[in-house]
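Lay summary

Proteins are chains of building blocks that fold into shapes. Our project writes down both the chain and a compact code for its shape. Here are two examples, one after the other.
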Amino acid sequence: MKEGCVSQHTKPTRSVSLPVLGGTSESSTEIKTSRTSRWRAAALITLNLLMIAHFVQWRLSGSTVTPIEPSEAMQTLQTGAVNAGFIFFALAILATLIFGRFVCGWGCHLLALQDLCAWLMRKIGLTPRPFRSRLLVFVPLIVALYMFVWPTIGRWIVQPADQPLIPEFTDHLVTSEFWATFPPFWVAVPFLFICGFMTVYFLGSKGFCTYACPYGGFFGLADKVAPGRIRVTDACNGCGHCTAACTSNVLVHAEVKQHGMVVDPGCMKCMDCVSVCPNDALYFGFGKPAGAVGRSVKKNYSLSWPEEALAAMVFCASFFAVWDVYQLVPMLMALGIAGVTTFLFLRTLRLFGPGDVSFHRFNLRSADSIKKSGWAFLAFSVAWIGLNAHSGWVRYHERAGAIAFAKVHIPDELALAQADPSEWLDRNDRANIAEGRDHFERAMNAGLFVNKESLSKLAWFEYLSGEAAQAVSTLDIAANHQDGTQRAMSLYYRGAVLNRLGDYRGALTDLDKALAERPDLITAREERGESLWQLGQRDTAVKEWQQALDGNPRLALSCNFLAGAARANGNSDAASDYEKRADQLTPKDARFHWMLASRLSNVGMRDLAEKHFALAAKLDPALLLRRKLLPGGRP
């Protein structure tokens, strides 16, 4: 009978008598309690306390060492920013090349959660049963290659010939944005629950490590060449206590009998097998690596080959359905969800097939009928898979809307130059806007959560469609759900649109909030200067434009605003200087001149506006027909 399908009616216990394989009956004893497990538990608890202390130190001081998290190494590979996560990951790989997967067993917070879940399950009489798949074990390595190798390959493909392939390394060991790359707290909690607990309940102890952890993908490769391994002496009598004590689902007794050492890369050097051996026959030592011997011992798998193929398809479908849905679900959480979904889907199919089906100590189906526990399992499975399918539907529309958004190429500056930018859109732009808007609205109407990024994009589609007032309302909702840079940008765009609609006080309020979030947002200062100018606070407006120009000396619009303000104040010399500087910064682009003209016309600087209208028409005479200019050059 395949592993994972065996009946589990009896209450499992860890202290069981195992028959001696090739030994004497006198050697059959109860399994000892591992002394090493207590030391490992203490190490993992200390690790989690240090992580909490790291977070608290950041909250109190405002800056700290960058997260000591392997995923941070992606930033180093992409931008060259050397952080603590990259250093830790590099040292962990080097240590694994020598000692094997000690770092996984003794220094991973997610493994600590999995061990805690397995311990709690045993306390209530449930023993985690390993779900063994031939194909899904390759998921961690595939994801690891995508995370850490693909960025370099992608840069090699698209990198300009005059740019180095390897980015210049810079120091990024200290940060004030410690949580920037982590999900919000209310996502982190279910993330830890799913990846640390549910994967153990459904996939067995170390379920997340086996089928989801991308770092384990590299650690597993490094372990194959590591000389440090669990090895055996002649004192071994094959009692099997080591295998019973192993929480990494390794067939220790069989491997040491066949190879003289543990060769399974899933061995995380927890040392429980060494601790419980009644003959002290196991030890950690150095010698020939696992890669130098033949294949590992034959295992019993939970799935047939047709089921393996189906499992791979379900896993991929579930992963892509939930990954980044609502801009919330991180990759590792999506991998954990996909593993659980795959198990539930396959076990549900077996409920309607021949034979008995059990799960832990629960009898789901026997005597050709589904039992009460089976119906409860089925209800949970249908709800879970249904939620996956719903997330996939939402994610499809979010993705389709984002693709349509990327196909609209009207520059922000040109679009924001007037209240209705729709006349600048060609047929393709209009089609993409309509399609993208429909996708975003479908996703939002059916979604269980708010996608903050999609809201901002929907607002932009509304504005480009000529519905500026609706865009203002959507941007207000977006800003209320966002924080940091995202919130600053939504407030900036809302303030800019309100300026075009003539609500200068409302615009000033939003622009002030945007600058409170991002004081370096220069374009918000330009817009704020326009609001102040229209409200009659012209001296303050001039100071705002000057401050924007100080922040970026190449702002042609601010130079033109200052030139117009100087001319309005009768300061012709200053006006001439600013105008000459603006002309040097202005590209020979008809639409850029048209943008300047529109913005200057909005604040009543007519002479400068007419100058840029004329230059725009000279560079592109078709603009005269398109915009239907009046004799005076005004639209």
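And here is the second example, written the same way.
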Amino acid sequence: MAPRVLIADKLSPAAIEIFTARGVQADVKTGLSKDELLKIIGDYDGLAVRSATKADKDVIAAAKTLKVIGRAGIGVDNVDIPAATAAGVVVMNTPFGNSITTAEHAIAMMFALARQLPAADASTQAGKWEKNRFMGVELFGKTLGLIGAGNIGGIVADRANGLKMKVIAYDPFLSPERAVEIGVEKVELEDLLARAEVITLHTPLTDKTRNILSRENLAKTRKGVLIVNCARGGLVDEVALRELLDSGHVGGAGFDVFVEEPAKANPLFGSDKVVATPHLGASTVEAQENVALQVAEQMSDYLLTGAVSNALNSPSITADEAPKLKPFVALAEKLGALAGQMVDVGLKSIDIAYEGDVAGLNVKPMTAAALAGVLRPMLAEINMVSAPAVAKERGITLSESRQEQSPVYDNLMRITVTTQLGKRAFAGTLVGGSPRVVEVKGMELDAPFATAMLYVNNLDKPGFIGALGILLAEAGVNIATFNLGRTAAGEDAIALVGVDQAPDEALLAKVQALPHVKEARSLTF
């Protein structure tokens, strides 16, 4: 029986043609309510969506035969990935199909703000002819600040350079070499806020980027700055931005995305200094054709052959390799996630060393999994397929090494990240098929990964463990595992604590304030 795919959002007719040509039955049923979707989703092997249909945990629970969800586009905010993973459903996206379209929309927003085009159009068509009211500014010679300089940000930089703008960029993953290549000056966020006359955002929404233009940061911008967000709602404090627009500190704002969508009401609406569009960044004929073709091809390949492309929750591994590589891929991703959560400044290079029997296996999926783990804390939507390309875009050097013998373990994997501040190394192995951390900062330990963990780097002094335990107990945080490493008595030490509840910022601050503590971090896996 041919696999069945439900196309729940409007896609290009080319997608249906590809499904049909490959032997996959595709049913188009758009505009379904949640109840309607719940009633029929159990009949399908695949679900193709854009951004309107919400594939939440209820939908996934009802989809008893569902094998794959394909997102025609990059953002997967409308898909419950943890629920899909738990149900064994592969979630795919098409990360590069609409990059040019989204970049062009940001450039269009810049021009619209600089010349007040929407307000001038409305005034003129109303017969007012207010020529003296609309005094615009030139983009020529202005300083454009990019927050995020990946694929889309790099395209915006290229277009802005063509307009003879001065382009500066804040991106922790942008290397100096890549900055030169795309024609931008790499700066820190504080410098960008102080210098930029136009600011555009090109970063995913993660815990680290949420409200990156907060009330505090918006207050640090230049008077008259123009702000464009065609990336993700939630990157900018909308209430604070409206206040600064009304006060005259911010000269204008162009928004294609909002905290709540569909945006029937929003703090920014009603200001003549705001240009708003209904999430049109990817809405061109060319982009929709591209992502439709890609999602149809990827879903067909998976349903018919088991091949996985651009999966956000599944490694790209052939059927023959899967049983042997799966535990090593899991180790690589978790070890990478540990390294990624320990990095706060720009990455220069990542080296992955394989020792023992693992060195004789196909390490490509492991390297991709490790790289995705390192980058995911800042780039939430990254996956094993896109991670190498994203790292290359940012000029991050990736290297591998193999050694057939390991001094202690049958198999050992070591990830070394180099940043502007130096190097950090993390090593792990498999014990009974389960990933474990065995080295951090050159200190040996043996710790299983937990969903939530607390990392503490301190001087090895008496009383530390007791003081830490008391703080966690007072906060109601239960300890599941407690593992220690140190260089020598009284010197550098680390603790990796598996906890049942993730420590909040207040608790982390208290841990950081303990005597002899150098660093405290909350980790999630």
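What can we say about the second shape? DSSP finds 17 helices and 22 strands in the chain.
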